[in-house]
Amino acid sequence: KSYKLGSKLRPNDPILDKKIAEADAKLKESQKSADSDKEFNDALQKGDSLFAKNNYEDANLSYKGALAIRPNDKIAEEKVRVSSFYLESKLIEKGLSSKDDNTELMKKDIDDLKKLSVTDDEKKVLVDLQAKYLDKKSGIFKNQIEKAVSQKSYQQASSYLKEYKALQNSDNPDLKKSIELFKSEGLKTADEMIGKSLYSQAG
């Protein structure tokens, strides 16, 4: 204000004009920074609200919007990572619940999800997804084995059994438990039809 008052008293003064221009530029920059901070905080708050409602997709977009406003911000980066993890986990869970044999794709997605996993809660989600993957894969083997046996395709049944046994090599205790439960219940019919000799061949 003082510069502009001086300008009225001393019109066309180049020094005053320069000072006025500099002051105006600083004011605009300050206002721009304040607006940017508000947009950033609003985007984070919106993302938090959406995340709390398990709307991970929109939360992720909101967090990414905040990160675009303030690149390399650690808080925004972490929120993008976490929301990306839970968004991807929900997509995998949906894929595993479908009737399609998409287990190879799901296995790849689970492996990719491991790269995003950091916290204990996230690792528990991973274990649960791996168990669901194993249950689905085991169910597919059950159907394949029983179909092969019914068609007297014992060589094919033996091949499926080898793949089934490979699932038992996991070091994860929760997955082993799922396998044992499946083997004791789901494969009873196949065990009776194939017999011990076929298991020996598969070994």
Work out the number of β strands. 0
Low-pLDDT stretches: 1-9, 185-203
Helix content: over 70%
Specify the overall morphology: rod-shaped
- Largest sheet properties: none
SSE sequence, one letter per element: HHHHHHHHHH
**Distinct helical segment count:** 10
Derived from helix and strand composition plus strand pairing, the structural class reads mainly alpha
Rg computed from alpha carbons, rounded to a whole number of angstroms: 31 Å
Mean pLDDT: 75
Gap between N and C termini = 90 Å
Beta-strand share of residues: under 5%
Describe this structure in words.
The chain is mainly alpha-helical and 203 residues long. It is built from ten helices and no strands. Helix 4 (74-97) runs parallel beside helix 6 (120-150), helix 6 packs parallel to helix 8 and helix 6 packs parallel to helix 9. Mean pLDDT is 75; it is low at 1-9 and 185-203.
List key phrases describing it.
203 residues, 83% helix, disordered C terminus
Characterize this entry briefly.
This protein is mainly α and 203 residues long. 83% of the residues lie in helices and 0% in strands.
SSE layout:
Blueprint: H1 2-9, H2 14-52, H3 56-69, H4 74-97, H5 103-114, H6 120-150, H7 154-167, H8 173-185, H9 188-194, H10 196-202
